[in-house]
């Protein structure tokens, strides 16, 4: 939990968020250490440097040696001081610490009395599991003020004598409002009183300030999945997006666009092998012309081609029949109804038993002509 955050705050804003500014809002008097390592980012991950507010004793000339807060740039991901000098530090191993068990584990228990610190960020990311996928959400205050996390820090010396300062962010059970998203959340110190209790290293019951943040001013919204890549950075990380519906069927949507009842095929053109959707069948020729059939399988191509050929042959036959009817009507209208047939002498063909049509019956001749064809 809390493995990604946004932090673009300068030292002055960090000090102000942690209650270190004076009455006029001036935080310039707060000491800063190693801030040249800090790189503001919209997508901070373990292993990066962040400004951390900690308390340290002042110099020898400071009277009784009281502690004063400083802003120290430390690396996110705790490396305990007892880690072997030759060991390569793993900052993803302890970038979070469960607040319920910090008194039980040696890595954290020894840090509670003297090594508490504060981490100020503008927001953090959490992923919602959705089957095999995860959807990221950006969580922040609705008035965009910084969030202040409770944290612990430690110092480790490597084989080269270099001192590395690292920290871990404390987590707790999720608030009632965020249980749908994740079962854990960072410990958010809700006011100056809780900040002072944690930073001044007092020893009351820490459970009172290490519980989940339940106030309603903590809000969230979905963001791009690209934030899953540590290299992805910039304002696009916190841009709100609209989640797509999981019930969409792109293929059925494709066919539904071609529905047009006014141009549907007549009933006499349907066959037992026709497509289940009439609109898809009626638009076969358009799909062939537009080369959209390339998106279908070979069986679908063959099926559509057969239907198109069938529809084309039936159209030709219908057109021929239409021409016959027009000639029939024309022949009928061209012969007056009062005209009588002329009786001719029997021809040799009649003597042989063959029937000869009347020369005035032109309609029969045209029908015979089309019949031969």
From TrEMBL:
<feature type="compositionally biased region" description="Polar residues">
    <location>
        <begin position="356"/>
        <end position="366"/>
    </location>
</feature>
<dbReference type="GO" id="GO:0008233">
    <property type="term" value="F:peptidase activity"/>
</dbReference>
<dbReference type="GO" id="GO:0016829">
    <property type="term" value="F:lyase activity"/>
</dbReference>
<keyword id="KW-0190">Covalent protein-DNA linkage</keyword>
<dbReference type="GO" id="GO:0006508">
    <property type="term" value="P:proteolysis"/>
</dbReference>
<dbReference type="Pfam" id="PF02586">
    <property type="entry name" value="SRAP"/>
</dbReference>
<protein>
    <submittedName>
        <fullName>Uncharacterized protein LOC105035553 isoform X1</fullName>
    </submittedName>
</protein>
<feature type="region of interest" description="Disordered">
    <location>
        <begin position="257"/>
        <end position="284"/>
    </location>
</feature>
<feature type="region of interest" description="Disordered">
    <location>
        <begin position="346"/>
        <end position="373"/>
    </location>
</feature>
<dbReference type="InterPro" id="IPR003738">
    <property type="entry name" value="SRAP"/>
</dbReference>
<dbReference type="GO" id="GO:0003697">
    <property type="term" value="F:single-stranded DNA binding"/>
</dbReference>
<keyword id="KW-0227">DNA damage</keyword>
<feature type="compositionally biased region" description="Basic and acidic residues">
    <location>
        <begin position="257"/>
        <end position="272"/>
    </location>
</feature>
<dbReference type="GO" id="GO:0106300">
    <property type="term" value="P:protein-DNA covalent cross-linking repair"/>
</dbReference>
<keyword id="KW-0238">DNA-binding</keyword>
<keyword id="KW-0456">Lyase</keyword>
<comment type="similarity">
    <text>Belongs to the SOS response-associated peptidase family.</text>
</comment>
<dbReference type="InterPro" id="IPR036590">
    <property type="entry name" value="SRAP-like"/>
</dbReference>
<keyword id="KW-0645">Protease</keyword>
<keyword id="KW-0378">Hydrolase</keyword>
């Amino acid at each position: 939990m809390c493995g990604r955050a946004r932090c673009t705050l300068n030292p002055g804003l960090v000090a102000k968020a942690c209650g270190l500014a004076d009455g006029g809002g001036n935080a310039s008097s707060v000491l800063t250490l190693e801030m040249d390592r800090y790189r503001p980012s919209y997508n901070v991950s373990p292993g990066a440097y962040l400004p951390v507010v900690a308390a340290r004793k002042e110099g020898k000339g400071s009277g009784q040696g009281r502690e004063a807060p400083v802003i120290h740039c430390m690396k996110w991901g705790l490396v305990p001081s007892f880690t072997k000098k030759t060991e390569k530090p793993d900052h993803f191993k302890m970038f979070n610490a469960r607040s319920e068990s910090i008194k039980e584990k040696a890595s954290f228990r020894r840090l509670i009395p003297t090594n508490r610190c504060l981490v100020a960020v503008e927001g953090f990311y959490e992923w919602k599991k959705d089957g095999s996928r995860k959807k990221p959400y950006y969580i922040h205050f609705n008035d965009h003020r910084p969030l202040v996390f409770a944290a612990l820090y430690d110092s480790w010396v490597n084989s080269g004598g270099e001192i590395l300062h690292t920290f871990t962010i404390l987590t707790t059970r999720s608030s009632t409002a965020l249980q749908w998203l994740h079962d854990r959340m960072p410990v958010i110190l809700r006011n100056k009183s809780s900040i002072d209790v944690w930073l001044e290293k007092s020893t009351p019951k820490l459970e009172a300030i290490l519980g989940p943040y339940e106030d309603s001013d903590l809000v969230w919204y979905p963001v791009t999945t690209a934030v899953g890549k540590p290299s992805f950075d910039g304002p696009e990380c916190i841009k709100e997006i609209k989640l797509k519906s999981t019930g969409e069927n792109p293929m059925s949507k494709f066919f539904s666009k071609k529905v047009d009842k006014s141009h549907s095929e007549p009933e006499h053109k349907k066959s037992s092998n026709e497509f289940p959707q009439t609109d898809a069948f009626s638009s076969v020729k358009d799909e062939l012309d537009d080369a959209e059939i390339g998106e279908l399988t070979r069986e679908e191509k063959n099926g559509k081609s057969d239907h198109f050929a069938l529809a084309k042959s039936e159209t030709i036959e219908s057109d021929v029949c239409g021409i016959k009817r027009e000639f029939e009507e024309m022949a009928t209208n061209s012969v007056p109804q009062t005209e009588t047939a002329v009786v001719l002498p029997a021809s040799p063909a009649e003597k042989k038993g063959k029937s000869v049509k009347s020369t005035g019956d032109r309609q029969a001749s045209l029908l015979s002509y089309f019949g031969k064809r």
